[in-house]
Amino acid sequence: MGLTSALDGWQRSEFTADGRARLVFRRGTGPGVIVVHEIPGITPKVAAFANDVVAAGFTVAMPSLVGTPGRAVSGLYGTASLVKVCIAREFVTWAVQRTSPIIAWLRALAADLHASAGGPGVGAVGMCFSGGFALGMMVDEVMIAPVLSQPSLPFAVGKRARHADLNLSPGDARRVAQRAADGCEVLGLRFKEDRLVGGRFDALRGLLGDAFIAVELPSTSKKDHSVLTEQRDEASVQRVIEFLQAKLQH
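^ that's the sequence the OP posted. Answer follows.
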């Protein structure tokens, strides 16, 4: 599959907010859902998942934060994208109790998507390094369907505190907890033995209480990580779509 064929049918444009312009792919009709790719970028399998969300009746906006849109996974490509994520100031990859600056840009994209697509609010699906981004986007009332797939920032290396940190400042964590208490549910997905997720699901239960819905899959390999893409679990993809439909299509 070529670089363009993976994204056939998607409209390409730039969205500017927080002083930064980024490429965004958009497709579909209906309430808005932001799909945020994992490392190394918008791969064919990320695009395939996004197309499934479009087919379920949503307008999907898919920003390109790193990598080459449409390029397939490879070892060298993945390493290069990982290095870029680690050194980019907009992603908090090592510090604890901080919200990644990219969240401000994503919140602006969510507001813009809601204004054009309509509906009761918007949803967001993050994966891997972006897995927790939808949690930070809950600061705004417009985010009513947050999905966290294998949240992995800050990277669970070294300090024990990183293994359970949720990539939120104390103020944002309080706001997110209040929204959860007010009824905003959060869907999380992971393979049980995924070390990159660390102890975050326990931390999410502590922060969100009964508002956190956990989908935890048995690991069959040490490589199991990408629930919705590279190691795609069909039942989990359907669970995400059902969650989005329940929150946004009523």
